[in-house]
Write a structure and sequence with these properties.
Blueprint lengths: L7 E5 L4 H13 L3 E5 L13 H6 L7 E4 L2 E4 L1 H11 L10 H26 L8 H20 L12 H15 L9 H11 L2 H16 L6 H4 L15
Parallel strand pairs: 1-2
Antiparallel strand pairs: 1-3, 3-4
Helix pairs in contact: 1-3, 1-6, 1-8, 4-5, 4-6, 5-7
């Protein structure tokens, strides 16, 4: 394994689903990294853009990772780098087929499940609009599929993996936007509770919950349960 003396710097945002995925993975790996939260507010979103994000990512989006001379963007690519950089604890399962399935689940979280959630984001005051209804129905079908995967196992791909991190963060946004799980998916609800107890997940999702609360935004019950009992002790650096 290559060793780098340079620090790892991760650029993210307080409500970045993809940045949160990377942050959780880095914490699970026990990596020492500097977290830089880029400017963000509910009205202007990510304006003005952070200059390092603009320079490194053609899409001008977080997450962006800098490690010495290496500059990466896209959460999946950063996942893969972490797995090479710090093989233990492994966050992909062993074996070609098992690893391929886990990677597919991670991809489906981003590219199959999440697009309907994105549609819901712009329809929060029109949840009975046919497009919003269809988006929730699509999400519900995806939940049923994920629930079936959990028969006889604790995690989506067998062992805890990047696939779980990815779908946890995606469903967090789905739940916030009105695509809620229900009693038809008891295994998936238990899976969410299982992940919510992991220290790395609680740290990242709890900070997101605190930010949402500070903005007066409603929180799903499982996310509200992560609110710290007192305000965060130290703000992240804004470089």
């Amino acid at each position: 394994m290559e060793h780098f003396s340079a620090p790892i710097r991760l650029y993210s945002g307080p409500l970045s689903m993809f940045g949160a995925k990377v942050q959780i993975a880095a914490l699970e790996k026990g990596l020492d990294f500097e977290l830089v939260m880029v400017p963000f507010d509910m009205q202007r979103l990510y304006q003005p853009k952070h200059p390092e994000v603009v320079r490194i990512n053609p899409r001008q989006q977080v997450p962006v990772l800098v490690h010495g001379a290496l500059e990466l963007f896209d959460s999946t690519q950063i996942f893969e780098y972490f797995e090479e950089l710090q093989p233990e604890p492994a966050l992909w399962p062993a074996g070609a087929a098992a690893k391929a399935r886990a990677r597919l689940f991670e991809h489906q979280s981003d590219e199959v499940y999440f697009p309907p959630v994105v549609r819901l984001m712009s329809l929060q005051d029109q949840l009975q609009d046919p497009v919003a209804v269809a988006a929730r129905e699509t999400s519900a079908l995806f939940y049923l599929k994920m629930d079936s995967l959990l028969a006889g196992r604790d995690y989506l791909a067998g062992a805890y993996s990047f696939a779980d991190i990815a779908f946890y963060m995606a469903q967090l946004f789905g739940e916030r936007m009105g695509a809620a799980m229900d009693g038809r998916t008891p295994r998936l609800l238990a899976w969410r509770e299982r992940l919510s107890r992991r220290p790395a997940v609680r740290q990242v999702a709890g900070a997101m919950a605190a930010y949402l609360q500070s903005q007066g935004r409603p929180l799903p019950g499982f996310l509200a349960a992560m609110l710290p009992s007192s305000p965060p002790m130290a703000p992240v650096e804004r470089a």
